[in-house]
Amino acid sequence: MLVVALLLSAGLAACTPEGGGRSGPAPDDGSQRRDVLLDQGSADVVDLRPVTVQARPGDVVVLHSGNPGHGGDDESPVHHLFTSAPADSPPPLFVAAGRGHLPNPGSWGMCRGGDPARATGGCPIPPVEGPSAYDGRSYFSLGALLPGETRELPLAPDLPPGTYRFTCTVHPDMYVDIEVVEDPTTAAPLPPAEVAAARQQVVPHTTSGPGRPVVLLGPQPAGSAAEVLTAVPGAVRVPVGGAVTWRVDDRSPHTVELGLDHPPHLADTTATDTAPAVPRGRRWDGTGTVRSGVLSADPSVDRTTFSLVFTRPGTYRAYDRFHAGIKTVVQVG
User: Fold this and answer.
1) What InterPro entries does this protein's entry cite (predicted)?
2) Which class for 163: exposed (0-12), middle (13-18), buried (19 or more C-beta within 10 A)?
């Protein structure tokens, strides 16, 4: 228990400055804080637009999540995990633990130093042994970033000029480009995200017709740099003996869990909670609990669909452990 909670607290508390959002000189050493606002989404829409910030060597880049999430609710999902690993070879999101999975500290934790190729099961080297500031060569990860939180990235005083990219391990199309130059300029923030437009592309499709429905979890609408935290469709009807399939199309993790009175609590998650628990023949009579296990296109999981046959009439709710706001209502009969 609390493995997830410990990773989150390490990523959140240790790196969050007091009075996050201030700009101006950093304390004592004359370096400047270079603030950048990202993810101007909402509780149910994640804004995935990349951002750019300019800085000098020795400055401190401060990433601010503009997404309010659920207003401080501890069930707000983890939206971003920024690392210095190349976008085409990000560290895995999870590590195997028995029949289940746990977050890979190399992605979810705060790592400093080492080879990114060695971040497959944890930080490449103990962070206390790594550099205190980003030197452009060593592996850095900024920890799990929840809505409304901030992260500080100190730049080494001898960091060579150039562009350094930090990519979100969950959403590889989203990144922060840090342009190290002699005379930085302050870029205008991105305009507010068009969350309503992204939401409207998926929310009208709230029910499905006859047949074997397929439910998409956390879709990213075509042509929109956003992830919508919903199930599409959010309500389905099947006959007794009918099946429902849930699907994910990207690295963002999800689960399908039924037979619960309320959404599962992410912070209390153990490896057992992420292990599949499926009735014989994937035929469920509405008794007991069902767990899909982690669904993600990340190679550490590589399980993107889950199907279940419903054998008893009734109304059932399927919850998502990683996104408390995502649920599917299944009407049987």
Assistant:
1) Cupredoxin
2) exposed
CATH of residue 249's domain is 2.60.40.420
Indicate yes or no: pTM above 0.85. yes
Q: Does residue 188 lie in a domain region? A: no
CA distance linking residue 32 with residue 26, whole number of Å: 5
Give the strands of the sheet with 32-38, arranged side by side.
Answer: 24-25, 32-38, 60-65, 150-154
pLDDT digits 0-9 by tens, 303-322? 999 999 999 999 999 999 99
Interval 88-141: pLDDT, tens: 899 999 999 999 999 999 999 999 999 999 999 999 999 999 999 999 999 999
Identify whether residues 10 and 154 lie together within a single domain.
yes
Sheet of strand 80-83: strand arrangement? 51-55, 175-180, 162-168, 80-83, 140-145, 110-112
SS3 198: helix
Phi and psi dihedrals of 106, rounded to 5? -70, -20
* Token duo for residue 100: 């289940």
Relative to beta strand 231-232, strand 214-217 is antiparallel
- Whether residue 185 lies inside any domain: the answer is no
